[in-house]
Amino acid sequence: MANERDLFSAEIVNRGIESSGPNAGSLTFSVRVRRRLPDFLQSVNLKYVKLGYHYLINHGIYLLTIPVLLVVFSAEVGSLSKEDLWKKLWEDARYDLATVLASFGVFVFTLSVYFMSRPRPIYLIDFACFKPDDELKVSREELMEVARKSGKFDEESLQFQKRMLMSSGIGDETYIPKAVVASSENTATMKEGRAEASMVMFGALDELFEKTRVRPKDVGVLVVNCSIFNPTPSLSAMIINHYKMRGNILSYNLGGMGCSAGVIAVDLAKDILQANPNNYAVVVSTEMVGYNWYQGKDRSMLIPNCFFRMGCSAVLLSNRRRDYSRAKYRLEHIVRTHKGADDRSFRCVYQEEDEQKLKGLKISKDLIEIGGDALKTNITTLGPLVLPFSEQLLFFGTLVWRHLFGSKTDGTSPSMKKPYIPDYKLAFEHFCVHAASKTILDELQRNLELSDKNMEASRMTLHRFGNTSSSSIWYELAYMEAKESVRRGDRVWQLAFGSGFKCNSVVWRAMRRVTNPSRNPWLDCINRYPATLN
Question: Where are the bilayer-spanning segments (predicted)?
């Protein structure tokens, strides 16, 4: 009843003095009841649609003003012949030189202010993904044998891990730290964490500096993200010490931000580059598997053991205009969504101790539902920035229709009841969706109505390298480059989600076609992919 009353509004109308009848000479009133429009402007969906359009308008004002100026100028000039135009310009310059010089000065000043105030383009020069040695490679059966020999798990826990592994979408060539494979003791030590961090970070950075021919001392900004392992001194300090980087480098270390922190690190580097011209920024994304290896019996904490694997990415960004010709990609958009205000979302991925005081990462059974809600908010904000106008019109129209008439079930077609999912295949040529698990990829593909080809890079990355946390979206882009499928002008959407709960998107535009990559983690096996998955 409360919802029904909210659809109506009451209004008291003064009808004046009654002229006849039993109430003649009396002041009379009537009550008018009207149907009120639903307050759809407060809807979460429309709220984020408005936010997306707000971004679009802020950056698209020139698209409205420049055509108007061109039309006015064309109308003025078009009324004169070529001879009259030159004659008018010569006479103005001859008899009113001061006005001409002043106008030219204003023009140059305005143009200078425009180019100085506009955001600098951010270029991705190149990136590298660490590929561990083959001695760290383990199959699913070998991993189960390691778990069994450790003596830490009972039979019920072992069977649970086996079921998770066999249905995970992970193959038999992923990588585990040597400490996990070779020892049954506690691997969550600072010594083992630093050893793994040194291996993966320095391996990726060595390759990056070699590929880009940039010296470590030339880097002005360093951003490192690792969710679980956060020693003192920090991981960013380890890198600065190892490469003897310059003393005035701006370094940042992001911790506890989950698998979507790679996009957050790129966003932070972008903001710093906007304030510091002519600079390089390096973004390192990784996770320490051995330090987070759980040896207890809580099933929700055993899940990370089944999915997370070794990996690290290093990305070189630049705001130097002279890097335009050698850059691979240009940054287009970053959209970040945080659902941490909701308690269920906040505790969805949660690090804590179990009943035996063993530390682990607890994965909630509500992960799919919470992730879907965060994804919906993120893509609703991203849509107006990237979708063609036709898709925006359909999406916005059906959204308004559902909010206006959603409560009316009679006479409404099923197509109008179902929310319209924009066709993001019209906005992007390539999709890099965080390779978390087969179940999550299945749900994302179904909800976004993506094809198997769109999801190929994500599924193959999960199969070959497992869930490498925040670096997985770069292994996926490396897969596309190894397949030579990225062409000049193509748009790449990297989508990641993680603890908090967060869902973040970054959009790149390819500056050139990538062919015959000299260093790539897929080179020794790309001919075997796409593989047939069980």
Answer: 55-75, 95-115
Tokens matching residue 508: 């790149």
Does residue 172 form part of some domain? Answer: yes
- In terms of pLDDT, which residue wins out, 460 or 19? 460
pLDDT at 335 over 70: yes
Q: What is the pLDDT of residues 134-144, one digit of tens each?
A: 999 999 999 99
Cα four-point dihedral sign 321, 327, 332, 338 = negative
Number of domains forming the structure of the chain: 1
* pLDDT surpassing 70 at residue 388: yes
* Catalytic pick among 225, 253, 279, 467: 467
Tell me whether residue 59 is one of the annotated catalytic residues.
no
The residue to which tokens 């049954």 are assigned: 184
**Looking at residues 371-379, what average pLDDT do you find?**
90
Return mean pLDDT, the chain. Answer: 83
Main-chain dihedrals φ then ψ at residue 82, nearest 5 degrees: -65, -40
Confidence check: pLDDT of 73 > 60: no
Q: Is 430 a catalytic residue?
A: yes
**Burial profile 126-165: b = 16 or more Cβ within 10 angstroms, e = fewer:** bbbbbbbeeebebebeebbebbeeeebbeeebeebbbebb
Active site residue 242: no
In a domain? residue 149: yes
What is the C-alpha to C-alpha distance for residues 420 and 399, in angstroms, rounded to an integer? 7
Contact 472, 461 (CB under 8 A): yes
Among 129, 226, 259, 348, the one annotated catalytic: 259
Question: Distance from CA of residue 149 to its chain's centroid?
Answer: 40
**What value does the CA radius of gyration of the chain take, rounded to a whole number of Å?**
30
Q: Which of 70-84, 99-113, 385-399, 483-497 has the highest mean pLDDT?
A: 483-497
Give the three-state DSSP class for 296. Answer: coil
Asked if residue 223 lies in contact with residue 281, where contact means CB atoms within 8 angstroms, the answer is yes
Active-site choice (186, 242, 276, 338): 338
- The answer to whether residue 15 is domain-embedded is no
pTM of the model: 0.80
Burial code (b: 16+ CB inside 10 Å, e: under 16) for 361-373 equals: bbbbeebbebbbb
CA 196 centroid distance within chain? 26
For tokens 């005081």, name the residue: 357
Instruction: Tell me if 97 is assigned to some domain.
Output: no
Residue type at 198 in one-letter notation: S
Tell me, what CATH number does 506's domain have? 3.40.47.10
Q: Using the CB atoms, write b or e for 98-107: b if 16+ within 10 Å.
A: eeeeeeeeee
State which of 292-296, 398-402, 436-440, 476-480 shows the largest mean pLDDT.
Answer: 476-480
